[in-house]
Design goal:
Elements: E1 14-18, H1 22-33, E2 37-41, H2 45-54, E3 71-73, H3 76-80, E4 85-88, H4 95-102, E5 111-114, H5 127-134, E6 142-146, H6 151-155, E7 160-166, H7 169-178, E8 184-189, H8 192-215, H9 219-239, H10 244-247, H11 250-261, H12 266-275, H13 280-286, H14 292-307, H15 312-322, H16 356-370
The structure holds 1,4-dihydronicotinamide adenine dinucleotide and 1,3-dihydroxyacetonephosphate.
1,3-dihydroxyacetonephosphate (13P) binds near residues 117, 149 and 259.
Length: about 375
């Protein structure tokens, strides 16, 4: 199936994508199919050759034919020369070293866009914060993209949406224009904190869902964890300055649904292995690709403690990873020591709302997807 490509908004705009794993390669295809002139940087020369000459990235995207005009190189200098927008998709823990290597090679006016969904373990910083710390650029030239974006589905041109976030709405819009084509729709917002934390936090809840899947629990358990997980995500992100609506949007609820449901998700898969009884080290050995959630648990809980935010589900994930909680015992009703009935807050306003707020969140996410197709807009 091939979706009809929209005419390019900015034909031939030169961009670079750093990182030729599953998401970097898929995003390079999104941009190329939108009309941009894309150079994809792969660390390994043999992978750059396979992409440029064979139009394939068989390890990461089996069965996918890449666009004929997508170029790949293992030279960072060649990839960055003249690139006005630079999209970065390397494992979060390697971002800093890659930015240091790229530093002097970047166009002084380039916009740097994070495609990553992790925090730096040593500092707890979000990816845009690492970018702002390493590179001498203002927040207005930094953006982040997040949403329900399982790479292989998008590489097959199944329609989806994401949100581009930047402190500057103009920057978000410029990036969104390039990152839009017949099967990929980019919305915009200026809530970088909420957008980035949405992507990080949903990974942790997806690990929890994988664990209960592995144990063999059914849909009630999973729905309870998704719902209560969204409350944890929202409480955490709002404590750090995010807007609660962002967590109800594509970068929060949208991505939480996709990642929690899909066997394509590495976080979900890692959780399932844990639920089936494999230990942490075995799971890490089995995961061939980046599994950000396993690394984020520690720093996120530290950040939560610093702000007094309770994250009982994430705490249980940590305990399962540490081998101190039997996966069978992970469950929403065990997430509080108190037997006192708790109010079911579904947004961070300190009150019990029943299901109304959650329904509002679902409806907004649904509306965003249904209304996609008329240019970038606020998410
Ligand atoms: N795969 C997906 O569906 C999506 C992934 N993401 C995010 O994108 C980021 C990248 O993930 P994927 O592409 O999926 O991972 P991946 O495991 O498929 O690919 C990672 C790539 O980075 C390279 N790499 C490893 N260490 C490196 C280093 N030190 N320096 C430079 N490159 C290095 C690998 O060789 C590989 O090409 C993660 O933060 C992930 O959360 C976001 C949305 C969707
Ligand atoms: O972020 C993703 C989907 O939006 C990919 O999830 P995984 O990293 O769990 O594969």
């Amino acid at each position: 199936m091939r979706a009809k490509a929209h005419p390019p908004v900015v034909p031939g705009t030169r961009v670079a994508v750093l990182g030729a794993g599953s998401w970097g390669t898929t995003f390079a295809k999104i941009l190329a199919d939108g009309g941009a002139d894309v150079v994809l940087w792969a660390r390994r020369p043999e992978l750059a050759r396979e992409i440029s000459e064979g139009r394939r990235n068989s390890d990461y995207l089996p069965g996918i034919n890449l666009p004929a005009h997508l170029r790949a190189t293992s030279s960072l200098r060649d990839a960055l020369a003249g690139a006005g927008q630079v999209f970065v998709s390397v494992p979060s823990q390697s971002l800093r070293e890659n930015l240091v290597a790229a530093g002097d090679l970047l166009d002084p006016e380039a916009v740097i866009v994070s495609l990553m969904k992790g925090v730096e373990r040593s500092s707890g910083l979000r990816m845009s914060e690492v970018i702002g710390q390493v590179l001498p650029i203002a927040p207005e030239r930094i953006a982040a993209i997040s949403g329900p974006n399982l790479a292989l589905e998008i590489a097959k041109e199944q329609p989806t949406a994401a949100v581009v976030s930047s402190a500057s709405l103009e920057t978000a819009q410029a990036v969104a224009k390039l990152a839009t084509n017949g099967y990929f729709r980019s919305y915009v917002n200026t809530d970088v904190i909420g957008t980035e934390f949405g992507g990080v936090l949903k990974n942790l809840i997806a690990v929890a869902i994988g664990i209960v899947d592995g144990v063999g629990y059914g849909e009630n358990t999973k729905a309870s964890i998704i719902t209560r997980g969204l409350v944890e995500m929202t409480d955490f992100a709002v404590a750090y300055g995010a807007q609660p609506e962002t967590l109800a949007g594509l970068a929060g609820l949208g991505d939480l649904i996709a990642t929690s449901q899909s066997p394509l998700s590495r976080n979900n898969t890692a959780g399932r292995l844990l639920g089936q009884g494999y230990g942490y080290n075995d799971v890490v050995k089995q995961m061939q690709q980046t599994t950000e959630g396993l690394v984020s648990v520690g720093p996120i809980l530290e950040l939560a403690h610093a702000k007094g935010v309770e994250m009982p589900i994430v705490e249980q994930v940590r305990q399962v990873l540490a081998g101190t909680l039997n996966p069978r015992d992970i469950a929403p009703h065990l997430t509080t020591d108190s037997r006192e009935p708790q109010g079911e807050r579904t947004i961070d306003d300190g009150q019990a709302h029943g299901g109304a707020a959650l329904w509002g969140a679902f409806k907004r996410a649904f509306d965003q997807l249904r209304d996609g197709g008329r240019g970038p807009r606020g998410a």
